[in-house]
Design brief:
Blueprint: E1 2-3, E2 8-9, H1 14-26, H2 34-44, H3 51-73, H4 79-103, H5 107-130, H6 139-150, E3 166-170, E4 174-179, E5 182-187, H7 188-205, H8 213-220, H9 225-250, H10 263-283, H11 289-311
Antiparallel strand pairs: 1-2, 3-4, 4-5
Helix pairs in contact: 1-10, 2-3, 3-9, 3-10, 4-7, 4-9, 5-8, 5-11, 8-9
Length: 314
């Protein structure tokens, strides 16, 4: 089938299948999978117009609610953290969208920008994973959570018996919460400013902003991946809605560029992603936290390396 806005021809079953496979694994780390769908669209489908960023965000809008619902049902949504992410990334996404259209319409330069972002996050995660885990660090909550899951402390007879998170304090200075006998305390403005910067990057890259914030939370703030995932996905959803609306709104002002999303292609990707994210969120608790982090780091470094090779013509 030919997709007019994207200017590509592809079988109808390919987008949902690819999105399902990617989202199943990435949703475990709080990442929608959009950052991997973008290189797939650009490198394999040949979709290099600026509108690929907006189409990627349509995928987020359709796919993410199923994953967020699953994390919410299991009591692993820290809502104050989620809303800080949303309100921090939202203005950044608008700025990023303008940067993408005005300064990075050339896919070659856009790929180099994306590679630098992914490499930085990926190598930071690898460096942290290679460090020896110290006794008494906050990885303890992740380990205890895994032990509880392995011992059978999961949903029985439809009742949620997983330990829920508890917010201990929340103000314009600090956010504190507990997760499986571990207490976490983070700076409100640290989270907000990081979310704003990531929102700009995400707006340029077309992944909503919330997606790439999960690795930052894990590596810089030491938050558990089992809690970060839900907040990151919800942040991605809200900012993607705004991003799609913004790209659609500014499209008439740039008639020489393909700016508005390819709705049909985005919905096809989103349909597959919806199923993948729900199953990924459901299975996440059975996967060791370290394995999820290695997966996130690996796909980021691999994707960045491919972009750099493309930039230099290899």
């Amino acid at each position: 089938m030919f997709f007019q806005t994207a200017g590509i021809e592809v079988a109808l079953w390919i987008p949902p299948l690819v999105a399902f496979m990617i989202s199943f694994f990435t949703s475990m780390g709080g990442v929608s999978g959009a950052f991997l769908l973008l290189p797939f669209q650009m490198s394999f489908l040949g979709y290099t117009n600026p509108s690929v960023s907006a189409t990627n965000q349509v995928f987020n809008v359709v796919a993410i609610p199923s994953g967020v619902y699953r994390y919410w049902r299991e009591g692993r949504m820290v809502w104050p953290l989620t809303w800080i992410v949303v309100f921090g990334t939202l203005p950044g996404v608008f700025i990023g969208a303008m940067v993408r259209v005005l300064y990075l319409p050339d896919p070659k330069h856009f790929k180099l920008f994306a590679a630098c972002v992914l490499l930085y996050i990926g190598f930071k995660m690898v460096a942290d994973l290679l460090k020896k885990t110290k006794t008494g660090t906050k990885n303890g909550s992740e380990s205890r959570f895994q032990e509880m899951v392995r011992s059978g402390g999961i949903e029985r007879s439809g009742a949620n018996v997983l330990p829920v998170t508890t917010v201990t304090h929340f103000n314009l200075k600090r956010l504190g919460f507990t997760f499986y006998s571990e207490t976490y305390d983070v700076s409100f403005w640290g989270i907000f400013l990081l979310s704003f910067i990531v929102g700009i990057v995400g707006g340029i890259y077309g992944i909503g902003g919330g997606s790439i914030i999960a690795p930052f939370f894990i590596t810089f703030f030491g938050l558990p991946v089992y809690i970060v995932a839900g907040a990151a996905l919800m942040g991605t959803f809200v900012t993607s809605v705004a991003g799609v609306a913004f790209y659609q709104a500014i499209a008439p002002f740039y008639p020489h560029l393909s700016v508005a999303p390819d709705w049909l292609l985005g919905i096809l990707f989103g349909t597959g992603g919806m199923a993948g994210m729900y199953l990924g969120a459901r299975c996440q608790k059975f996967v060791p936290a370290k394995a999820i982090k290695w997966m996130l780091a690996g796909v980021m470094v691999f994707t960045a390396a491919k972009y750099i090779l493309d930039f230099f013509g290899y």
